Amino acid sequence: MPDCRIASRRPRGGPAEPRYITDPDRLRSFLEDAAHVPGGHAAALVMPTTEFEVAAVIEASAAVLPIGAQSSLTGGATPRGEVLLGMARCNRMIDSGADWVRVGVGMTLADLDAALAQTGRYYPPAPTFNGAFIGGTVATNAAGAATFKTVVLATGDVLDIERGITRAHADGHFDVVLGDRTVRVPVPAYRMPNVPKVSAGYFAAPEMDLIDLFVGAEGTLGVMTEVTLRVRPSRPAWCLAFVPFADRTMALQVVRLLREAAHQTWSTGPPQGPRGLDVSAIEHIDARCLALLRDDGADRRTGVAWPDDTTMALIVTLELPAGTTSQQAFEDIGRAGEAGAPETPLGRFCRLLDRAGVMDDVQIAVPGDIARAEQVLALREAVSATVNSRVGLAQATVDRRIEKTAADMIVPFERLGELLEIYETEFNRRALDVAIWGHISDGNLHPNVLPRSFADVEAGRLAILDLGRKVIRLGGSPLAEHGVGRNRVKQQLLAELYGQTGIDAMRAVKRALDPQWKLAPGVLFPRE
Ligand SMILES: Cc1cc2nc3c(=O)[nH]c(=O)nc-3n(C[C@H](O)[C@H](O)[C@H](O)COP(=O)(O)OP(=O)(O)OC[C@H]3O[C@@H](n4cnc5c(N)ncnc54)[C@H](O)[C@@H]3O)c2cc1C
Questions:
Q1: What residues are in contact with ligand 1 under a 6 Å CB criterion?
Q2: What is the pLDDT of the chain when averaged over all its residues?
């Protein structure tokens, strides 16, 4: 029977003395994250290898910021005077079974994938930067569901949390036993939006599992040291397709059909080798992004081409039955149009694209064609790089106050067409130059302003706040996957989403577990 009460324990792995690095040259490379917010400064850096060291640093410090790969896009991994707990050395594969792994939080997604590949297993979280650490992805809710977590609290006590064991009391609280006292942790009463991704402060739901409180908490409630994740016992064969569309409405229709087909496959197909279409991700790139990529020569560099009249390109990841060879895939593509061709997932995919009139321009990397897949992925990566470099250039040449001005919003997929229209109207109304890309199959888009002046940055921030309110009215979340961090606009969006009472409810959770406000202070919300 789940219980709302959990007992902590004292940290293991002592008595190693943490080594505080204060040399400014060593610290310099840890002073900013991928949001490139200026002014990062740290009291020291410790790279612990045990939970004992983590606890010792927390106990000895006034403020601590846990960091992973610092790929955060919110400034949440940029220090503001804290002692940095760099988790890179907690990077061991601790144990594993056919469908689970227990890892140190400092392991990168790329290293986990390489380790799992050796035994044919696979970890399928939402696509993200593969240099991110497991701890960072859990802390920003970019990971799959964890089943077990070890967390060092602000008091230096340690919780081993197993999914299914500790659930909130029906009156909305957990009891956490710390030594000889019990702390009552209240569960916020706000309702989270019903969309596939929400990285907007503390998870809250009636009778929720305690493990989920630390998902998306961005380091403010505890420092994770180990996590157990579910993995798939076999690796599918992947196929990556770059599909340019002249007609945006048709592109959205294709995304809708692919989603429906995939849902049908998941609900009816056998666990291995479904014959239906299995689409694990669809990303999109808008016309403005494509123009920037062309200006930079990314099409020539990657060898991925698109017609001049393209208004939207999709990058579709298909999962094919394990063991599908490139030869089989080429045969399926070649025979897709033939009457009586066998019903294969790839054949269905090609027929769907053919009916949409876009088959002639599709570029497909079949399973095993790593070079082609890398070209398509390189093009995808180039999108954010080209936008960021333009923001950097404007900052260097126009106004030093210019900074990345971007949103990360999600709506229920059925409302996506409306959202695209709202974006167009609102950005045009403010005469802003904006490039949009994202995870379109989730309804999650990333509009990025291309500022020509600081006035564009200010107008962009106001637009994002305004759009955030509209996204909430559409049943979505203005904070989907990047988290909130210390970004002022994102913190305002969090308040828009849950109201001031919601922020106060989060503060009450924080106060219960971290009364001295030691962990990641200022991340998610200011102290008062
Ligand atoms: C090129 C690029 C592409 C990206 N694409 C995506 C994408 O598609 N989807 C997406 O969701 N994100 C994306 N991101 C954002 C980023 O990769 C994710 O937010 C990632 O999950 C952060 O992991 P990290 O290890 O870098 O964490 P960090 O940036 O180091 O930290 C992020 C937050 O987690 C906290 N934290 C880190 N480790 C711990 C720990 N052990 N215990 C407690 N708290 C901790 C930190 O305090 C901080 O608040 C992208 C970033 C880049 C640079």
A1: 33-34, 65-73, 76-77, 87, 105, 127-129, 132-133, 135-137, 139-140, 142, 218-219, 223-224, 384, 481-483, 520, 523
A2: 94
